């Protein structure tokens, strides 16, 4: 089933071991805050980072922001304990890395069995092994906590021995496959990070590419990327104007029950009505 509309334009990674970053996150404009226990934390700081992430979840104060914690993989010395304490803490979602297929989804889902119902499971798409079975992985959403895909293009580039350059040509099939699998099973799907956080033009171009491919938003590595990312993934004034016209047209008495109507010289179907309502819902949530 498709998840309820919720803005996920920008998802900022923050090292959970950085107390100043955690405090600052509560006032940033990101729709999603991802407290990282994995790549951003050195082995000697893993336990401290876990404790700080749990404390941040319990303390709250993130407002409407979605609070996600990226755990270490179950195959690491820290993964099982990460999942156990996060299940008790109950963030909005737990993001898990380095998985290869449906069996791994089941293992992570079992590890979160005692978590509150609201705590969802998000998975990183960052290994070559998972690419051929993206639809089978996404189908696990029907009877598990699975609710989101997050692209891990840096790790994927490493495994593929491919180069991450503007345009991301080697990864375009992966972007399409990930979005298609997510949409087929009602998952949220976020694009990977852009490493060029100092070059606004490069970042904006990559964010616009993600929008073109159908992503809900993009993961970020620096607060300076939040505003341009939100701008790209927010509905434009023209889009909202058209969506309002579509909804109003279908609400007219003469159009009730119709599957297709004519509006401003164009044929508009019920699928366009569904898209228009979702766009307006997202815009209302952004405004709030």
Write the layout of secondary structure elements.
Blueprint: E1 10-15, H1 19-25, E2 32-36, H2 46-59, E3 66-70, H3 79-89, E4 93-96, H4 102-111, E5 120-125, H5 134-139, E6 146-151, H6 153-160, H7 172-184, E7 188-191, H8 200-213, E8 217-220, H9 226-233, H10 237-251, E9 260-263, E10 266-269, H11 270-287
Parallel strand pairs: 1-2, 1-8, 2-3, 3-4, 4-5, 5-6, 6-7, 7-8
Antiparallel strand pairs: 9-10
Attribute tags:
single chain; 288 residues; alpha/beta; 2 domains; eight-stranded parallel barrel
Helix and strand composition category: alpha/beta
Cα(first) to Cα(last) distance is 25 Å
CATH architecture of the largest domain: Alpha-Beta Barrel
* Rg, alpha carbons: 20 Å
Mean pLDDT: 95
Strand order of the largest sheet: 1-2-3-4-5-6-7-8
Please tally the helical runs, counting DSSP H or I stretches of 4 or more residues: 11
CATH superfamily of the largest domain: Phosphoenolpyruvate-binding domains
Structure summary, number of beta strands: 10
**Any idea how many domains?**
2
């Amino acid at each position: 089933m498709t998840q309820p509309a919720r803005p996920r334009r920008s998802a900022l990674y923050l090292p959970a071991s950085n107390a100043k970053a955690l405090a600052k996150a509560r006032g940033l404009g990101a729709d999603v805050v991802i407290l990282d226990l994995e790549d951003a934390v050195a082995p000697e700081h893993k336990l401290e980072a876990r404790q700080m992430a749990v404390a941040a979840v319990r303390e709250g104060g993130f407002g409407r922001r979605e609070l996600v914690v990226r755990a270490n993989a179950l195959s690491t010395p820290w993964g099982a304990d990460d999942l156990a304490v996060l299940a008790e803490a109950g963030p909005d979602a737990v993001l898990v890395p380095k998985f290869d297929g449906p069996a791994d989804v089941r293992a992570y889902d079992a590890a979160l069995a005692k978590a509150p119902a609201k705590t969802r499971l998000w998975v990183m798409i960052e290994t070559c092994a998972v690419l051929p079975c993206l639809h089978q992985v996404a189908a696990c959403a029907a009877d598990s906590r699975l609710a989101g895909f997050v692209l891990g293009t840096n790790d994927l580039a490493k495994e593929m021995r491919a180069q991450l350059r503007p345009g991301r040509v080697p990864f375009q099939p992966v972007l399409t496959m990930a979005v298609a699998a997510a949409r087929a099973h009602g998952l949220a799907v976020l694009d990977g990070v852009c490493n060029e956080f100092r070059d606004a033009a490069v970042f904006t171009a990559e964010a616009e590419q993600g929008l073109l491919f159908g992503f809900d938003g993009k993961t970020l590595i620096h607060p300076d990327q939040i505003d341009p990312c939100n701008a790209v993934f927010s509905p434009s004034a023209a889009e909202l104007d058209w969506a309002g016209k579509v909804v109003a047209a279908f609400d007219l008495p003469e159009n009730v029950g119709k599957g297709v109507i004519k509006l401003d010289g164009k044929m508009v179907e019920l699928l366009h009505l569904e898209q228009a309502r979702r766009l307006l819902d997202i815009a209302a949530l952004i405004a709030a």
